[in-house]
Write a structure and sequence with these properties.
Blueprint (H helix, E strand, L loop, with lengths): L3 H4 L1 H16 L1 E2 L9 H7 L10 E2 L2 E2 L5 H18 L3 E3 L5 H12 L5 E5 L15 H5 L1 E5 L10 H11 L3 E5 L9 H11 L2 E5 L4 H5 L12 E5 L10 E5 L2 H11 L9 H14 L2 H20 L3 H5 L3 E2 L8 E5 L7 H10 L2 E2 L1 E2 L14 E5 L1 H6 L3 H15 L5 H14 L9
Parallel strand pairs: 1-13, 5-6, 5-7, 7-8, 8-9
Antiparallel strand pairs: 2-3, 4-10, 9-10, 11-12, 12-15, 14-15
The structure holds pyridoxal-5'-phosphate.
């Protein structure tokens, strides 16, 4: 039982260097966050040793008394947090949660109607070489090229035309709230299930700063590691008792073997924290940070450089930057921000003239910096740094110094050693 630094110094160094990287950069990938130390503790615990196929009280292994308590807590807290009648907390990730949802409510060959990947959807919503695109017949809706918004009349038209078994509402890169009631109306009109994948905005929902899809959807799935800031994993919610049974069967034995009990315990802790006033306040800062960033990137100096913000702003935790008319492309912008120690990801914009490895867009999110403690003052500073970095002839050393001042003022995981 020698420590990691002795057993495997190479991996120990990866952990140490990664902690340094996280401390020294401003993390603005919209799907990332920092888990609290309490969550790190559960994930690095002896619960990883335990097999627990089945569900609490109905396991296929002995010795599950303690992990049953953890899973019950995670289930009850997830239900309370999102106001649902049922929760399955076993999915290993968002993608496996989504695979289980489809396994529960559709059969191979059925038609799914979801947001196209290149318009802001997710791989699991029907991308050609993902399981979803291979197993199901995919019809995709997009966003209006002028407004960058989902056109609900177009969704209805496609739904009436294609009679899908499932309509998918949810996104990985979309800066506005969805009209869940209208999605449900359309689903009811054509006899489809409405599945909402709230992976990105679940933390906003939990914090009460974004409408909840739970009263509208037949099924809701989410990751736990994005805006919620919990362990990397997924969950599935529903208010329908029949669907609940199908979802449980779809997850186990349909899709997974032993659940990751250390991660499920960490989910329970993350959900407990998500019910606190501090969590709500953090989600409010997350939203304000994104809107401060969008406002800065809509100013004249940026517009003069051919750079714009898709949909003209944001209602959520991210901003989509459109570089189609700018000299700089998505990859150059991502690299440039990396040079000044801000991490973002490049993203295709609808009708992107540049190839997917280059792109003409950036997706910039505020959840991780809000967790780090940033408020309006710091987000105003970050927004200005990003704006100046994207303009021609940026003064890189000056911007690096401004980022370094922010990272120093908000230490990440103080006292933690890896
Ligand atoms: N659903 C949406 C909307 C996502 O954005 C993502 C992740 O990016 C996922 C599902 C998949 O989550 P994971 O990466 O945990 O498989």
């Amino acid at each position: 039982n020698a420590p990691l630094s002795e057993v495997d110094p190479e991996i120990a160094q990866v952990l140490e260097r990664e902690l340094d990287r996280q401390r020294g950069f401003l993390e603005m990938i919209a799907s990332e966050n920092f888990v609290p130390v309490s969550v790190l503790q559960s994930q690095g615990s002896v619960l990883t040793n335990k097999y627990a196929e089945g569900y609490p009280g109905r396991r296929y292994y002995g010795g599950c008394e303690e992990v049953d308590v953890a899973e019950e807590l995670a289930i009850e807290r997830a239900k309370a947090l999102f106001g649902s009648e049922f929760a399955n907390v076993q999915p290993h990730s968002g993608a496996t949660a989504n695979a289980a949802v489809l396994h529960a409510i559709a059969r191979p060959g059925d038609t799914l109607l979801g947001l196209a990947l290149d318009q802001g959807g997710h791989l699991t919503h029907g991308m050609k070489i993902n399981f979803s695109g291979r197993l199901y017949n995919i019809v995709a809706y997009g966003v209006d090229p002028e407004t960058s918004l989902i056109d609900m009349d177009e969704v209805r038209r496609l739904a009436i035309e294609s009679k899908p078994k499932v309509i998918i509402a949810g996104w990985s890169a979309y800066p506005r709230q969805l009209d869940f009631a209208r999605f449900r109306e359309i689903a009811d009109e054509v006899g489809a299930y409405l599945w909402v994948d709230m992976a990105h905005f679940a933390g906003l929902v939990a914090g009460g700063v974004h409408p909840s899809p739970v009263p509208h959807a037949h099924v809701v799935s989410t990751t736990v590691h994005k805006t919620i800031g919990g362990p990397r994993s997924g969950i599935i919610l529903t208010n329908d008792a029949d669907l609940a049974k199908k979802i449980n069967t779809a997850v186990f034995p349909g899709q997974q073997g032993g659940p990751l009990m250390h991660v499920i315990a960490a989910k329970a802790t993350a959900f407990k924290l998500a019910m606190t006033p501090e969590f709500r306040e953090r989600q409010e800062r997350t939203l304000r940070g994104a809107s401060i960033l969008a406002d800065r990137l809509c100013q004249k100096d940026i517009a003069d450089a051919g750079i714009s913000v898709r949909s003209g702003g944001t209602d959520v935790h991210l901003v989509l930057v459109d570089l189609r008319n700018a000299e700089i492309d998505g990859r150059q912008a991502e690299d440039l921000l990396h040079d000044i120690r801000i991490t973002v990801n490049r993203n295709s914009v609808p009708n992107d003239p540049r190839p997917p490895m280059v792109t003409s867009g950036l997706r910039i999110g505020t959840p991780a910096l809000a967790t780090r403690g940033f408020g309006d003052v710091e987000f105003t500073e970050v927004a200005d740094i990003i704006a100046l970095a994207l303009l021609p002839n940026a003064d890189i050393p000056a911007l690096q110094a401004r980022v370094a001042a922010l990272t120093a003022a908000f230490p990440l995981y103080p006292g933690l050693h890896q």
